[in-house]
Fold:
Amino acid sequence: MKRLSTLIAATLVMGLSWTASAARAEEVRGAGSTFAYPIVWKWADIFRQSTQNIVGYQSIGSSGGISLIKDGAVDFGATDKPLKPEELERLGLGQFPIVFGGVVPIVNIAGIGPGQIRFTGAVLADIYLGKITTWSDPAIKAINPDLPLPDAKIAVIERSDGSGTTFNFVSYLAKASPEWKATVGEGSSVAWPTGTGARGNEGVATEVRQVKNAIGYVEFTYVVQAKLAYGLVQNRAGKFIVPSAASFQAAALSFDWTKARDFYVIINDSAAEDAYPIAATTFILMYKVPKAPQRSRTALEFFRFALGDGKKYASDLGYVPLPDTLVDQIKEYWARQLKSGA
Structure:
């Protein structure tokens, strides 16, 4: 719990840095994904120490990041839901990935530890549809025959804010459950059929920790940092996959990024045998012709560091750094598409 409290406190400090340092005209401002917040914060801290340049970041969710970059209020937005090339072109934005990770179901059930409970996509969908309401439901027991699951009501926790984490979670549910696809669908925010909302990955993690018999979903780094109990999820090959750097990478590398315009790739529900099924990518949005060229150049210096020497920090936090071939592709994209990237 101490690690999670520290992470939440750091989120507030990083967001408030905008106000505290408003006099610094060249401070780079970013906002968006809570999924990527832990690694962006770490990168920003190391970058500041080595260059004296400050990168402020508001962990407000992917939808918030998209809104702020559209309004020109930040130098970059971070989103776990990529924008389609047609929308990027209309807005004058460029888009590129910075890190891979995964969305993981977390639980608070007495006697159930990390990696002990199993889920299929259909079972997760039925829990969030309100069709499965107790941990003793036959559908859950069928895939967890040896677990001492209680005959207790499931407390469903979901995101209340617009979220790329939610997008990747419900995008997967829509692929696993025809009923989910038909009745709830996909998006950064949806009309949840049941449950209680919490803001950000931090909020969901905290709520699940505090509520007995709860289930939620968060980015894997929050699981690692807070030592949360998590479930395995069955992939398309029929395997129940442990969330890990290896299984996230298996998902990410099963797609051909060289053929994707503006890197528009969604990596969940991969057909790769060892792929984690709810893998996700964080993308950066920047204007091709920025209003503040110097800050945009500094932002690209920051991401050049992040995708180079910063890889080791991503690995330490449970993310998957981008492979060198994809980093080279991104740098070529900067040179072609972003005025500050030449």
In short: Residues 28 and 298 are 7 Å apart (CA to CA). The first strand starts at residue 28 and ends at 32. DSSP finds 14 helices and eleven strands in the chain. Confidence is low (pLDDT under 50) at residues 8-25.
